[in-house]
Amino acid sequence: MVSRAGRSKGCSNCRQRRVKCDENRPICNRCKKRNLTCDGPKDSTWISLNHDRPPLSRSHNPIPAELSFIAFEDDICVSYTRKHLMRGGCVEVACDLVQRVGLSSDVLDPGLSLLRDAILSLSAAFYGNQHRQGAITNRGYKTYGKVLGQLNTHLAQPLLQTTNETIMTAITCMIVEIFVPTGPNNFFKHVQGIEAILAARGPPTSPLGADLSMLGGVRILCIVGAIVQRRPSIWAQEEWKSVPPLCTDEGSLIRHEILLILADCTVLRKGLNHASLYEHTEEDYSQTIVRAREYLDRLNALYFRWEQHNASILGEMASPNFQDPTIANHASATTYMLYNGAYICLLRIVSAYSPSTETLSLQSLQVAAALRIVKCLELKAYEKREGSGESNTIGFVATKVAWETLGGFSSPGGRRLSRAVKAAANGVFAVGAWDEPEELLEPRASLYAAGNIRTAAPLVHEQSVMASSPNYKVFELINIGEKNIVVDTVPFDLPRERDRSMGIPKNSSQISVA
């Protein structure tokens, strides 16, 4: 038992004067000497600290050895996706919108609710795929299937059909098909759907705001999708070509001009369909090759603009992270990658209309351009994944174009590209997001149809179901960790001297892949 004494037992006068009381009874000596009325000493008061406590009982719900991951799984997946997947682009814009209202299901706005589910489906599928967590990946695919169903509902309602939330939901679904694809060419279905929504909505009317930021990354995906599918893109229409770039610095303006050339290429590529080939006359072929050469001349002029801009940056503030002294920084490398990607696309068009005797030389030029893309990916700044969402999107598209040109793992250049991608993007580029053009010639159902916009995509996206389906194609990922790579070195030179008639670098034909 633990106890302690209470307050002093002295009389009130002594305690008030803060002097020691002799505690005589009935009157203490100090009060007696001063003729004061004394109330006498107090009785002892003891305070016991030994209070009774109820016995401790064993909990029926003991604390688990490992805390559940479910409580904060969504936050972890979203944070990981924002950090590693196309940072600064449409995904981050969508995440910002969603996280303003939180990741809970208590979201009143139906557009934000759908966008939140789309972000969660992408994040779970991507995180689970990267960490080989099958349960998380399947949960992401299941949510993705629900999102497609909800997207149908939104597209049937005029007030929700063309909102920013609906467009970003479709963009998020397209990104799912880029990085964790669910089936052959579903990427293209989303591209066509997004263009249908944008066509119904019309180009942005203000040079400011979220619209340009949202469209900045998706524009190149729509254009390249149209090139591969051999159909005109809405970005080739004058009203869409007049949409201003998000930034007005020289590098952004050069990239904008290159994208305008690529948009025009979608009209030329339409002529390569089998049905169109039978309809074309010799005059049509002549006009097509003339226009292709004109685009090459425009691209050639933009190359020299880039070269001057790059040199001015080198003179002002060359980045110490860059090992190659000819390229100034990440933004300059991104512009150069876009240039080479557009250059390859134009060379493919020229090759389709050129005599067979020129095929090998044109292929060599394409390989040289692809190797220049590899060189850009090998720069230190790309290993850190720096830059805007547009630059990350350009990096993905350029990688895909270079991968097809170099022949994948079958060539030294392709294996070199795989190592560069592994370092730059942690191996997350799904180069099988779309198939070769020959497999795209038959008409296919669009995910969305203009006017009465609707989806035709499958609603079941569970990995176990897809793996057992005979129509499911396993996509080849650039992942050096799953391949036995032999280190190869391939020479690299920046183009200097060019043929003015076609804008083709003369020295590039000397570079080949064994």
From TrEMBL:
- Domain Zn(2)-C6 fungal-type: residue ranges: 10-38
Q: Which residues form the signal peptide?
A: none
UniProt superkingdom: Eukaryota
MF terms from GO for this chain are: DNA-binding transcription factor activity, RNA polymerase II-specific; zinc ion binding
- Check the record and name the PROSITE patterns matching this protein: ZN2_CY6_FUNGAL_1, ZN2_CY6_FUNGAL_2
Which UniProt keywords are present, listed alphabetically? Nucleus
Q: Which Pfam families match?
A: Fungal_trans_2 (PF11951), Zn_clus (PF00172)
Q: What's the protein called, per UniProt?
A: Zn(2)-C6 fungal-type domain-containing protein
Q: Which organism is it from?
A: Paraphaeosphaeria sporulosa
